[in-house]
Amino acid sequence: MRIAIITGKRFIRTAIEIISSLRFKPYIHIFSVDEEIRAIAEKISAKFTKIRSIDDIYVHEELENFDMAIIAMDEDYDGINAARALKTMGIPTIMLILNESINRDIPEREGIKYIVGIDNYVLGNIASFIALDTWIFMNVLNYLNLGIAVHRVARRGTIGVFLKELREVARERNIGLIVLNKIGKIVEDENYEIEQGDTIIVIGIGDELYRGVNDIERIFRKHEEILARRYTETFRISTRPIG
Known about the structure:
By secondary structure, the protein is α/β, with parallel strands linked by helices. The chain has 2 domains: about 1-115, Rossmann fold (3-Layer(aba) Sandwich); about 120-243, Regulator of K+ conductance, C-terminal domain (Alpha-Beta Plaits), CATH 3.30.70.1450. The protein has helices at about 10-20, 35-45, 75-90, 105-110, 120-125, 165-175, 205-240; strands at about 1-5, 25-30, 45-50, 70, 95-100, 115, 135-140, 145-150, 175-180, 200-205. A 6-stranded parallel β-sheet has the order 3-2-1-4-5-6, sandwiched between helices. The protein is elongated and about 65 Å long. The relative contact order is 0.12.
């Protein structure tokens, strides 16, 4: 299987983790305007091509031989233009990741079937029925068994869980991980402490998605137990009789 990834610095980690979670090893070719992504491509033995702009995609005729494309650009208009270009080149499966779901109308009209709006999980219809501190699972690509799990943080906020702990799980399980803060912005700082109102999005293949979620749950439970012991000890000290 030949997979093209068109991405920017903001989403390269997620795109690579999605690919890494596949049980088979596809041929990967990364196209990006960001030269620094070349080093990441080399680490996963992927071919890298630097492009000056999305319009450059049209000149790469080798893309006509690819089976799938994953597009995750920093700006939605770049992602939509890339999807339009790849569809005209005949790539059968195109997965487009958008920052704002309101922008999905154009690619839908042009026949792009697999569209993931990152903000859906905070501002869209899904957010209205996701119970706080629970997980909801959704399938994105049936034939790849690719799924998404979403978790909205409430009482578990600010208990000592940091983004770097969750990213360690993502690396070990080969799953994609995105954390949105309460206003829907993607968090990049590994030292960020998960807060009330944040949303955790996990992307993975088959059982690895569920194993990754279980590992994240264990991290939250560990910190909940630490916090509970701390409060219990404080209560004992404060109620100790005098004399």
